[in-house]
Amino acid sequence: MRQAMMAAAACAALLATPSMAQTGGANAGQPSQAGPVTEVQTVADLAAVCAPSMSNPLRLESIAYCQGFLNAAGQYHAAMTSGQLTRPLFCVSNPAPTVAQSGIAFAAWAEQNKQYANEPALDGLIRWAQVTYPCPAEPAATAPASRTHRQGAR
Q1: Terminus of the chain with fewer CB atoms < 10 Å: N or C?
Q2: pTM attached to this predicted model
Q3: What is the Cα–Cα distance from 41 to 121, expressed in whole angstroms?
Q4: Contact (Cβ atoms closer than 8 angstroms) between residue 46 and residue 62
Q5: How does pLDDT run across 52-86, given as a tens digit for each residue?
């Protein structure tokens, strides 16, 4: 539990860190004079860094940022749902996709679902994961036999 709390605190600190070189918005994933992407705010921002244009000189840095964001979100989700108390928000298939495949798939989903473009990046990522990797339905609780049914079985 302590390890999960430390991971949560670290993730929160990373997500709360203000941008030092570039803000997200319309230029996310695109080169700027200030340097590589250091922050994304929205689904559109994250999609842009997960699928930067081939001509982007900071393409590799953008992809690395995307993969780090996806890894952090996935590890946080795993830590928070590792016990019996919390149901997972999504259930990744086995074998799991690579982080690169996930980034490309997320960017494609974001392109097809522009109504979520201005949502927070993490919200959109979780929305995509829930649609792409839904958890199996929980089995219905088996109700105990009714009293009349048990009496008739004698």
Answers
A1: C
A2: 0.68
A3: 6
A4: no
A5: 999 989 999 999 999 999 999 999 999 998 887 78
